[in-house]
Specification:
Mean pLDDT of chain B: 93
Strand content of chain B: over 45%
Order of helices and strands of chain A: EEEEEEEEEEE
Strand content of chain A: over 45%
Largest interface: A-B, 29 and 28 residues
Distance between the termini of chain A: 41 Å
Helix content of chain A: under 10%
Largest sheet of chain B: 7 strands, mixed
Shape of chain A: globular
Low-confidence stretches of chain A: none
Order of helices and strands of chain B: EEEEEEEEEEE
Oligomer: heterodimer
Chain lengths: ~110, ~110
């Protein structure tokens, strides 16, 4: 079965510093990949998705992610953290031939310090 | 405004007292799904529906029921709730069924079963 690993349940970054959140998946066939963000007391909001087009995917709020097939990774980055980026981030995968089931990672809580 | 609406947002109840969490989407989406979110486990799928009268089990269906009598509504039913069903629940929908479809999430329902 597909699995998703997010390295680090909590990440603390300084305002203006690089944000790097790691995600690795287990499928041997490149799946569809997503990053979602969850702000306090809200549902999940799509940041970006990879669906086999360009390997570097740009999302909302200045985030981007790079799909690396050889490393089975889909790490999320943002060059300069803002206080408003404090949230929980989830990586999710869906098999390319699936009906839409999402397999989520455990999530990474991002804290931004002034 | 396009949205997925869940009710109630918060509920504290007792073991064995039947409850229903409603979910409604106004986007004419075909696919709907229920997830539960637990710390350190990310989101896990409970049930999903590919269309009216078509539902199937996700990864953690025990103790839950669903129905899809209308396209816009997908209620989650706990016939005899137990404390291990204390969790944060999310309803989600997508335009069509498919692995590459991003899902739109409601704001969540926090259930506490005493």
């Amino acid at each position: 079965a597909q699995s998703v690993t997010q390295l680090g349940s909590h990440v603390s970054v300084s305002e203006g510093a690089l944000v790097l959140l790691r995600c690795n998946y287990s499928s041997s066939v490149p799946p569809y990949l997503f990053w979602y963000v969850q702000y306090p007391n809200q549902g999940l909001q799509l940041l970006l998705k990879y669906t086999s087009a360009a390997t570097l995917v740009k999302g909302i709020n200045g985030f981007e992610a790079e799909f690396k097939k050889s490393e089975t990774s889909f790490h999320l980055t943002k060059p300069s953290a803002h206080m408003s980026d404090a949230a929980e981030y989830f990586c999710a995968v869906s098999e390319s031939d699936s009906w839409g089931k999402l397999q989520f990672g455990a999530g990474t809580q991002v804290v931004v310090t002034p | 405004e396009a949205q997925v609406t869940q009710n109630p947002r918060y509920l504290i109840t007792v073991t064995g007292k039947k409850l229903t969490v409603t979910c409604s989407q106004n986007m004419n989406h075909e696919y709907m799904s229920w997830y539960r979110q637990d710390p350190g486990l990310g989101l896990r799928q409970i049930y999903y529906s590919m269309n009216v009268e078509v539902t199937d089990k996700g990864d953690v269906p025990e103790g839950y029921k669903v129905s899809r009598k209308e396209k816009r509504n997908f209620p989650l039913i706990l016939e005899s709730p137990s404390p291990n069903q204390t969790s944060l629940y999310f309803c989600a929908s997508s335009l069509v069924t498919g692995g590459n479809q991003p899902q739109h999430f409601g704001d969540g329902t926090r259930l506490s079963i005493l």
